[in-house]
């Protein structure tokens, strides 16, 4: 019996319930406390509709890519290629529009299909070749970096980007709400409905909970795992496209940093509302914590390196809370 199990046996039922509630709501409590503290310390700059809208708008791309990663993690795998893939997609979508003259909708459709294809490749390597997902997706991601440099020669694709492409990310087509926020809500809402309210969502959760039992129940486990990678790949492609639109260029490493942000959001989210389970709502809350934490640091003039320290610390704490919640659920 583990030390955790022995400790839990010595705890009263009331204490266990209190600890379980804390594990579920600690991240939300932390978010509220952080918002309150920043609002008190900077009442003129922080607690404004404009600032909150700007924060969510800036975080929307990280939320989209993290939402896709959540699906891969739910089925029990990790996708380390997403940041590199998003960077490649940003380069490719810009190149398709500028160099090859594709209409913007057609270029975006090609990129989303490319994202799905990368997901299929990741999924096949993991399920058929039986390569560990960390190694497989890291290898694929490295290949994608090479392809990005090969296509762009390492130089940003800037000249000739049409204004309509800028407006994809920077526009406000619906009630004055930034397009990225609208797209993020649609993507996360769609993923939530898929996982929580559909029959295939039940299969996704079954595979993530116990692949052997899912296989005995007649679920095609490999197909579900590949689906998780495909959705992760499509969200990475969409993120790269929107980032290229926001920047007005295709840059080889523009989205690389989204990898750490996405993982921090996903694991922090697994400690939210559920006992160590990965889910879309939790990922959204985790991304909000990271986004508002960065925003507060910027408002108070903290140096750039502090953001990296905060993000790394959040990831460590998130994994720790996730593990604690899972252990408490099992005991």
From TrEMBL:
List the CDD domains.
Answer: TM_PBP1_transp_AraH_like (cd06579)
The identity of this protein, by name, is ABC transporter permease
Q: Which residues cross the membrane?
A: 21-43, 55-75, 82-98, 104-126, 133-153, 173-195, 226-245, 257-273, 280-302, 308-325
List where in the cell it is found. Answer: Cell membrane
Q: How does the entry describe its membrane topology? A: Multi-pass membrane protein
Q: Which Pfam families match?
A: BPD_transp_2
The UniProt keywords, alphabetically, are:
Cell membrane, Membrane, Transmembrane, Transmembrane helix
InterPro entries, from UniProt? ABC_transp_permease
Q: Which organism is it from?
A: Dongia rigui
Which domain of life, per UniProt?
Answer: Bacteria
